[in-house]
Amino acid sequence: MSSVKTTAHSVVEPTPTVKRIAGAIVILYALVTMIPLAWIFLTSIKSPPDSISYPPKIVFTPTLEGFCNLFTTRTRQTPDYIQALPAPSSTCDEITRSRNMVIAGPSNYWPRFGNSLLIAFGSTFLAVSLGTLAAYGFSRFRVPLADDLLFFILSTRMMPPIAVAIPIYLMYRQFGLSDTALGMILLYTAVNVSLAVWLLKGFIDEIPREYEEAAMIDGYTRLQAFWKVVLPQATTGIAATAIFCLIFAWNEYAFAVLLTSGSAQTAPPFIPTIIGEGGQDWPAVAAGTTIFLVPILVFTIILRKQLLRGITFGAVRK
Amino acid sequence: MLARATPTTIAVRVRGLSDRAIAWLFITPTIALLLAINIFPLIWAVYLSFTNFRANRPNAEVEGVGLRNYQRVLNDPDIWIAMQTTAHFVFWTILLQTVIGFALAYLIDRKFRGHAFWTTVILIPMMLSPAVVGNFWRFLYQPQIGLFNYIVSFFTGIPPSSFEMLGSVTLAPWAIIIVDTWMWAPYVMLICLAGLRSIPDYIYEAAEVDRASAWRQFWSITVPMALPFIMLAVLFRGIENFKMFDMVMLLTGGGPGSTTEVASITLKREAFESWLTGRSSAFAIILFVAVFGLANIYVKALNKVKQR
Fold first, then answer.
1. Rounded to whole angstroms, how far apart are CA atoms B70 and B55?
2. Pairing of strands A72-76, A101-106
3. From B271, which residue of chain A is nearest by alpha-carbon distance?
4. pLDDT of residue A45
5. Are A63 and A94 in contact (CB under 8 A)?
6. Separation between Cα atoms, residue B8 and residue B238, nearest integer Å
7. Residues A59-84: pLDDT tens digits?
8. Residues of A with CB below 8 A from B275's CB?
9. Taking the model in full, what pTM does it have?
10. How many angstroms from the chain centroid is the CA of residue A130?
11. Could you say which residues form the signal peptide (chain A) (predicted)?
12. Do A162 and B267 touch (CB under 8 A)?
C-alpha cells in the first residue's frame, strides 16, 4: 500500500533514513561554520581580560566595555584625578573610569560606518540604474558588436584590483578624487556595473517583448513602455542585482585601503586598526565587526530567495 | 498575434525618440563610465609598464624603457615564487571547496526537513567581508588564547601553544586555505545545487527501472550531468582566488617570511611600498594576460563538456 503511494510521486524520492542522515551532516556543518561568528559576538560582550583568557571562556559576565571602547577614545589618568571628577554620567563613563581612564572623545567608528553606508548605497543605486538601462539596450536593440562589448564589460572583472589601483590612484590624485566619497562611489559603480549588466540582461531577456509592443500599440512611446511595463516586470531581477552590488561595495577592502586614508575611509580598512593599550582591543574589534556584519546578515535572511535566484541565475546563464 | 504581425507599422507610429537613439542613450553612460574608470586606467597601466615612472616622484622625468620592465619581472625569482604560492593556494582552495561544496549540495538535494533554513545558514560566511572576517580569524588563530588552537588541541591532544597557525612556515598557508574554504565552499555549493536541480527526475527513474545501483547512478548520471556547473564554479573561484588579496593581507600580510606572499601582495608591495610603478604595471599586465588566457582556454574546455 504505502509503496504504491511513494511511487506515485517519484521512485527517486529519498527514503526517510537517507533524508535524516543527510540532514544531520548538513546541520553539523552549518553549526561548525557558525562557530567563528558566534565567537565574534561573544567576544564583543566580554571584558578585555576575559577575551584573552585561556582556556577560552564560554561562561562570563557580559559587559558593554567592548562597545564603549569601540565608540570612544580614552586617556589614562591617575586615580586621584579620577576621584576628583564629578559622578560618571553614563555606563561607558563608569566602565572607563574603573579602568583608570577617562573618555577623551568619540572614536572614528561611526563616521567610517557612515562612509560605508553612503558609498555602498550610492554606488549600488548608480550601478543598478546604469546597468538596467544598458541591459535593456543590449536586450532589445541591435547594438553593433554587442557580443564583443558584453565580453569586454565582463573581462574588466578579471584584473586584480591592485593592478588597476595604480593608474586609478594616479588619475584620482590628478582630478582631486582621492579620499573622496564621490571617487569611491564612481569606482565601485564601475566595478559593479559589469555584473549588473550581465545579470539584468538575463532577467530582461526573459520578459516577453510582446508586452512592450502591446503597450506601444496602445499609444505608449518606447520610453513609457520601458518605464511602465518592463521595469515593474524586472523588479525581482533588479532587487537580486542590487543585493550583489551592495554586498560587494559594503565588503570591499583592496581599493578602500589604497585609495582612502582619512575622510572617505570605509569600515573594512578601519576595523583592523582599532587598537587598545598593548595591541588589538579584541572586544572592541569584535563589537565593530558585529555591528558591521549585522546589516548583511539581515539582508541575507530577508532576501534569501532573491539571493538564491540571483546566484544560481548568474551560474546557469552561459 | 497582432503585435507580431505589425512591427513596421509600430515603428512608423511610435512617437518620441527613435529606437536607435534610445539604444545609444541607454548604453552610452555605462560604456563611458567603464572607459573612464576601467579601460583608461588599463591603457595607462600598459603605457606605464614601458616607462621608469615612479608614482612617489611625479615630477621626475619619465623615460621609455622598452621591454625592460617585462624582462625584469620575468627574470625575478621572487615573482616566480609568488606565482607558485598563488598556484598552490588556488589549487588547494578549489579542491577543498569543490569537494565540500558538492558534497553539501548533494546532501541538501535530498530535501530533508528544514533544508531551506540550513542552506541559508551555510551561505552566511560568503556574504561577509573577507578583510573584516580575516582580521577576526587572526584572533581565533592565536596560539595562546585563540579558540581554533583550543578546539584542535581538545580533539587531538596536541598542546595548543605548540603550533602557531600564522607564525609557522608550514602552517600559515593552511591557515589561509582554511578561512578561504570556510567562506567560499557555500558558493560552490549553491552552483552545484543549481546543477543537481537541473537533472530531470526521469533519468533516475529510467536508471531505477534498469536496476542501476546507487553508486552507479551517482557516477554515470549525477556527476556527469552536474559537471558543467562544477566547472563553472571552479572557473569563478579560480579567477577570484588568483586575485586573492584582502584575506591574506589581514591574516598574515604575506608572512612569515614570504611563505604566503601571493601575487597580489607582491604587486601591492612593488606598487605602493617600493613605488616601482612602471615595473609593477608590467607585472599587473602579465597577471591580467595570464588570467585572461587561462580563463579563455578553460571556457573552451567547458563548452566542450556542455556539448556532450
1. 18
2. antiparallel
3. A166
4. 95
5. no
6. 48
7. 899 999 999 999 999 888 888 888 88
8. none
9. 0.88
10. 20
11. none
12. yes
Structural domains of chain B, with CATH: 72-307 (1.10.3720.10)
Element (H, E) at A170: helix A161-175
Q: Please, which pLDDT band fits residue A6 given cuts at 50, 70 and 90? A: very low
Q: Give the minimum alpha-carbon distance from B66 to chain A in angstroms, rounded to a whole number.
A: 19
Instruction: Please state the rounded mean pLDDT for residues A181-205.
Output: 91
A70 chain-B contacts, CB cut-off 8 A: none
CA–CA min distance B164, chain A (Å): 15
Asked if A23 lies within 8 A of B15 by C-beta distance, the reply is: no
Residue A8 has pLDDT above 90, yes or no: no
Reply yes or no on whether the pLDDT at B133 is more than 60.
yes
Q: Could you tell me which of A28, A315, A142, A255 has the C-alpha nearest to residue B195?
A: A315
Other CB atoms within a 10 A radius of the CB of residue B95 amount to 13
Domains and CATH numbers, chain A: 109-273 (1.10.3720.10)
- Where residue A132 falls among pLDDT bands split at 50, 70, 90? very high
Q: Does B136 contact A197 at a Cβ distance shorter than 8 Å?
A: no
Tell me the three state secondary structure of residue A5. helix
The reply to whether residue A23 touches residue B115, judged by beta carbons under 8 angstroms, is yes
The dihedrals phi and psi of A279, each to the nearest 5 degrees, come to: 105, -170
Q: Is the pLDDT of residue A133 over 90?
A: yes
What count of other Cβ atoms lies within 10 Å of the Cβ of residue A182?
13
> In the prediction, which pLDDT does B1 show?
38
